[in-house]
Design goal:
Elements lengths: L4 E3 L3 E3 L2 E3 L14 E5 L8 E6 L4 E7 L2 E6 L4 E6 L4 E5 L4 E5 L6 E6 L8 E2 L2 H18 L1
Antiparallel strand pairs: 1-9, 2-3, 4-11, 5-10, 5-12, 6-9, 6-11, 7-8, 7-10
Bound molecules: dTDP-4-keto-6-deoxyglucose.
Length: about 140
Amino acid sequence: MKKNLLSFSIIGDERGNLVSLEELKNVPFAIKRIYYLYDLQRNFPRGFHAHKNLQQVLICIKGSCNVLLDNGQERQSYHLDQPHFSLFIDRMIWHEMHDFSDECVLVVIASDYYDENDYIRKYSDFMNCQIQKVISFEKEV
Ligand code: T46
């Protein structure tokens, strides 16, 4: 799986730290939406879907959680626990968020507005799309 962890520069001094996010600079797409998840429960994982077109950057600005990414061929788990690290989730990547710590706050930067039609919420549908992609690629070659 390609490199998904992004590291942001920390602008720090004796007053504390500041991290700045800028579209098409340290965020790899134009930003259309920002949302955040909080009051999360350790035993209630979230996600369990892929997006057809949406790209996202996840930043755990407080606490920690684990994020599983699955491209249909490989699965990789990431532990997010630092506000200057983020996880890039490309389109057509199945993702799940697990093991939220107390007071975990997850900020998500998204490349588009909310659209339920962009979601693939069944794993079998996601795998079928990935298989179709491989078949059409093999036909072209
Ligand atoms: C994702 C992960 C990281 C809205 O109305 N507007 C929004 O911008 C979002 C993100 C969600 N919603 C609605 C849709 C559902 O009725 O809020 C409800 C909860 O959404 P969902 O169950 O999809 O939440 P998560 O935490 O499983 O997933 C969310 C995002 O939906 C998703 O895009 O990638 O966080």
